[in-house]
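Researcher: Go.
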Amino acid sequence: MRKRALSTLLSCKVITLTLLLLCACLLFACSRQDTQGPVELLSITPYEGYSVGVDLFGRKLAMVPKGKDIPSEVKENFAANMIVRVPLERVIVASGSYDAGIILELGFGVTFVGSTEAPEEWYHPGVKELYEKGTLSFVGQWNALDFELIKTLDPDLILVSSLEATEALTALGFPVAGTYDPDINTIENRLKLIDFISAFYGAREKGRESIERIKATIEEVKARQANSPKVPVSWGIYYNRRVYALKGSFWMAQLITLAGGDYIFDYLETDTMELSLEEFLTASKDADIFFANPIYEEHVQTKEDMLFYHSDLAILKAFSPEGIVVVPRAIVFQDTGNLDEIALDVGAVIHPELYPDREISYFYYLE
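Model: Structure:
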């Protein structure tokens, strides 16, 4: 509720301002920025001597090159902790795993000094290496941050995924940018995030090269299946008789559709929506392919393994001999800087006949 209220405030459509919203606005230094009119989230606007970035929460940050004087208009319109010296040399990722994958893909892994994901939660080899070297620190969960450690790490910028963390960190004087919102986690936003992050490193050209590479590959995947029949596909995060599915606009669901899948939960409107077991089984029973997302990946290697834990799934066509059950490896959500390779793997799962030489690495089949 607070996120939506703040968004309304930033678009100047609020009729009544409560004290709570006013306090939040002051924390974000909104009163010192021009917030009239709509803003494009994850956008970068260059000016003489600096640039302005709009994060995913609609907050504006000024990017000023290190070693250069801060322009007077920046001093007048931005609070000190809304001014970020670039290129970044020390960044903390408190927004999950998406940002880290992009930072590493752009070649700036050495700047990644703090994470809200513990070492055992990482599957990305680049991040695991940083932990092993001792250059990356665990700073606590996003909702239980170690503020003293964060202060010691002295970050140029902290990337976050919640307004609660944003408020707390901003109040302590840290520069913060919101980069993840589950309600708008689309392919388009994944690509815009690459551009947004690359700007803080003074590497927008490199970021654009990555974006164009991903776009070209996605178009290739889309073109390959243009004359092939659509394949019914289901996706479920299945745990303790509770089922969650991705909404149609989630980037992975979009990739499934672009690759020739008929995604049966395309109608869902909220991210990772919980379904009743009956609704899930009824919708999924005739799907040729089931992307199973078990919580305990190491224990599930065959269809029999999965059915041992969840016998209800036996009615699904995907668990028959002619059906396909495929599991996304954990790295698939930590390596979105390589969205092109993930797209090719999705295409090879849905239409393997179109990718005869492709060896998938982001997924594995349950035999």
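Model: The chain has a mean pLDDT of 88.
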